[in-house]
Fold this sequence. Notes:
The protein is mostly helical. The chain has one domain: Hypothetical protein af1432 (Orthogonal Bundle), CATH 1.10.3210.10. It is built from twelve helices and no strands. Helix 1 runs antiparallel to helix 12 (203-221) and helix 8 (129-144) packs across helix 9. It is globular. Fe (ii) ion is lined by residues 55-56, 84, 109-110.
Amino acid sequence: xxxxxxxxxxxxxxxxxxxxxxxxxxxxxxxxxxAESLSIDHEQIALITQAxxxxxxxxxxxxxxxxxxxxxLTDEEFEIIKYHPVSGSARMxxxxxxxxxxxxLVRYHHERWDGVGYPFQLxxxxxxxxxxxxxxxxxxxxxTSVRPYREVLGDKAAELALIELQAGMGSQYWPDAVEAFTExxxxxxxxxxxxxxxxxxxxxxxxxxRHVQFDAIRNRYSKL
Length: 224
Ligand SMILES: [Fe+2]
């Protein structure tokens, strides 16, 4: 996918909602670290990294009052949230994106191993492998990101999140993905990401970080 288009879309996420943008960058870094630990080839890593950067692109189509609502969502609001993998993949198709790893991640990142995820209720190995791996990363970040209602943060939050991931092995999550993520986390390979923009963020700081991150990834993988 054209690197300029990816950057432009990520920039649109920043302007829409900084919290989604901060989450996006952390999951990009987790995904890249996971892919590197699994010795995936460089071309695939570039694609998977782009896919992670774009996974929530459908949130551009959500109303601000739902996306930025600080409290619990109503059932009706959650039904609207569930639409974002569909609107995200529609955006990708409009942009003539054909790379399967990108389309798969945008479409299927909220599917669950036991088949009760959304929006397609795919089950187990019917879920593309990248989306199965990514679901664990996405949930871990959701459980460890700074939120007004969350009292436990940082390393303690990570510890609790890993327990939750273990509890969801075979139901919400692909067991192999939980094992791989847990192993990598316990090796200390993800510590720096846990705290990355996981606090008050400002748009200028974020814009700077986006340039730094895209440059770093481009230098290493040339495709992004
Ligand atoms: Fe999402």
